[in-house]
Amino acid sequence: MTGGSIGGLSTAVLYSPPLRRAFCFSGRQIFSKLQSKKVALVMDNPTLPDPRECMDRKVMGYKFVQTLLSVDRAGSFARKCAITYGEHLAATAEYRAIIAKLHAMHPDMLIYDPAPALCDMRKGVCPVTRNGKFLYSYGDHISDSANTLVADQLLHQLEGSTRK
């Protein structure tokens, strides 16, 4: 995985076998203690380039805009302001495998993946913008606009799970 965090813990831990084992062990302990509760795990969102690096090059040519947006290097814009859904899945394969193991141990746990809310699943792409609105505010933090999309989906899923 290239970036992001899980519960405030950098996803870089997934590359270190001892830390990965500790993460899995902690997850098992946490979910075991919550077994009598209805638990929802919200997965990490796709990690895209910083949206400030994806802005129109002409606008970003102005030093005051670079300063305002805290973009350090003029001309060092991301070449790609979207990733394919396949790239997202490949980058998060190990993370998803851990979540799948936790879910297998705790099948009543609701797993919510925000990728379908943030990605264009028909086109197989996860863009930084949709309908002229940024989905990410900075780094891999989703914007208010994206939060609305995610919250709508998550609330619908939570409502459905409480009826079962």
Over the alpha carbons, how many angstroms does the gyration radius reach?
Answer: 18 Å
Oligomerization status of the protein chains: single chain
Shape: globular
The largest pleated sheet is described as:
2 strands, antiparallel
Total separate domains: 1
Could you give the distance between the termini?
Answer: 34 Å
Q: Structural class given helices, strands, pairing?
A: alpha+beta
Number of strands: 10
Q: What's the tally of helices?
A: 7
Query: Strand arrangement, largest sheet?
Result: 1-2
Provide the low-confidence segments as ranges.
1-10, 72-79
Beta fraction? 15-25%
Please estimate the helix content: 40-55%
Average predicted local confidence, pLDDT: 76
- Could you give the order of the helices and strands? EEHEHHEHHEHEEEEEH
Describe the structure.
It is built from seven helices and ten strands. By secondary structure, the chain is an alpha+beta fold. It has one domain (5-162). Strand 1 and strand 2 form a beta hairpin. It is globular, with a radius of gyration of 18 Å. 16% of the residues are buried. The model is unreliable at 1-10 and 72-79 (pLDDT under 50). Keywords: Hydrolase. This is SGNH hydrolase domain-containing protein.
Topology (SSEs and partners):
Elements: E1 5-6, E2 9-10, H1 17-33, E3 40-42, H2 57-60, H3 63-68, E4 82-84, H4 85-91, H5 93-105, E5 110-112, H6 115-118, E6 125-127, E7 129-130, E8 133-134, E9 136-138, E10 141-142, H7 144-162
Parallel strand pairs: 3-5
Antiparallel strand pairs: 1-2, 4-6, 7-8, 9-10
